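FORM 7B: Structural annotation worksheet

SECTION A. Query
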Amino acid sequence: MSRRSGILEFAVLGLLRESPMHGYELRKRLNTSLGIFRAFSYGTLYPCLKTLVANGWLIEEPGSASEEALASSLAGRRAKIVYRLTTAGKEHFEVLLSHAGPDAWEDEHFAARFAFFGQTERDVRMRVLEGRRSRLEERLEKMRASLARTRERLDDYTLELQRHGMESVEREVRWLNELIESERAGRDQRSGPDTPAPLDHDSGETGGLPRHGGSTRPDPSDDTAK
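SECTION B. Predicted structure
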């Protein structure tokens, strides 16, 4: 399985964990809610759904008469099928949510993982956030070293582009620092010195995300931060 298809399968399972959907509903949610899927087609989605059904993680059900009429007007005959997560699919998604290794820190995968942080256990969220921050700090050091070596050979526009890229990464690092501190503060508030914090991945609580009026957070899927 390619990394890209793996991210798509993860996102589809996560959305269907919220509620069953038609194919056109899934595509709309993927396009609007998860920026990394802004430019993908039914030709990409339906093979993914077919694979998930074959694996026993989804089942196909006919929609109601009203749903079928709406789906037909929007997306054609194939959209009449409703996709529902099976028990095995829920269990598989829970396993995927528990992963916090290096793949979860990469640009596209991190954006998908972050979109489902409300369903993710707090300690896993922390490991993913800290891993992402570490990955970006490494990237930032390489960018600074490269700029120092090549500065004299760059024209003004190329130099400005390099600086813009660095600033984008620096902004995301600051954003991650805020998120990590908020997660830590939320955990401390929920538990005493000898009491582990309760898991809240089904409640949707995020431990108190930072809320700054008028501030702009970087989009984890922003190409300028890659």
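SECTION C. Observations
The two ends are 23 Å apart (CA to CA). The domain at 3-98 is CATH 1.10.10.10 (Arc Repressor Mutant, subunit A).

SECTION D. Sign-off
Analyst initials: ____
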